[in-house]
């Protein structure tokens, strides 16, 4: 099959998906519609043994603001004063300014259940849970981009884990893996750089 015969709709969406740091609240879609779409996308994301180890919290409104207030509270405890001011500006202008936040978790009780149930593969299930959360994040991120919503993936865990769990009354088995603020796209990101194909790929006939 020639390259011109290949379908490229997915590739176009993948190119549209970028890390968007300047977010806003000018979103046309409702919270209900965004959440319903993301639930379907995440449910269709593949996982080893169909294990479905990823857990998600959709935070809007006051809950969204609370996530980033917690980040700032915890950062202030550990960051030097001069560094904290820069972090505060970044959090408030880039993440808290968005429309919502997706909190991504791995259910460690489910991972343990799989390890006990399939001892031959026990050493792999946590790695596979990371693959599932990666698949789910990419799918959700791309779906947001398809709907002209920007997002980025942040990693303030494990610094905020305990406070997030307490604030939102989450199960102790849910291990926070990342935070995805999203919203309207307020500025276009710079061009993306790519490493040389020769350093990245091998084709073997």
TrEMBL record:
Keyword list (alphabetical) reads:
Cytoplasm, Oxidoreductase
Q: Name one GO cellular component term.
A: cytoplasm
One GO molecular function term of this record is: oxidoreductase activity
Q: Where is this region: Disordered?
A: 185-205
Pfam families referenced in this protein's UniProt entry, alphabetically: Nitroreductase
Q: Which domain of life is it from?
A: Bacteria
Q: What is this protein called?
A: Nitroreductase domain-containing protein
What organism does the UniProt record list as the source? Answer: Furfurilactobacillus rossiae DSM 15814
Classification from the root reads: Bacteria, Bacillati, Bacillota, Bacilli, Lactobacillales
């Amino acid at each position: 099959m020639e390259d011109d015969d290949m379908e490229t709709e997915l590739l176009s969406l993948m190119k549209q998906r970028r890390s968007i740091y300047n977010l806003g609240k000018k979103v046309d879609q409702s919270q209900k519609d965004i959440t319903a779409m993301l639930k379907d996308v995440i449910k269709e994301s593949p996982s080893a043994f169909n294990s479905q180890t990823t857990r998600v919290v959709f935070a809007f409104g006051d809950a969204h603001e609370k996530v980033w207030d917690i980040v700032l509270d915890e950062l202030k405890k550990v960051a030097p004063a001069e560094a904290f001011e820069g972090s505060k500006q970044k959090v408030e202008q880039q993440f808290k300014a968005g429309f919502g936040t997706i909190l991504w978790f791995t259910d460690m009780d489910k991972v343990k259940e799989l390890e006990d149930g399939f001892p031959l593969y026990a050493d792999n299930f946590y790695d596979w849970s990371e693959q599932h959360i990666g698949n789910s994040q990419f799918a959700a991120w791309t779906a947001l981009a398809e709907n002209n919503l920007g997002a980025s993936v942040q990693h303030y865990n494990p610094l905020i884990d305990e406070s997030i769990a307490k604030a939102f009354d989450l199960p102790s088995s849910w291990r926070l893996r990342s935070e995805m603020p999203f919203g309207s796209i307020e500025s276009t990101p710079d061009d993306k750089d790519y490493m040389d194909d020769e350093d990245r790929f091998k084709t073997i006939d």
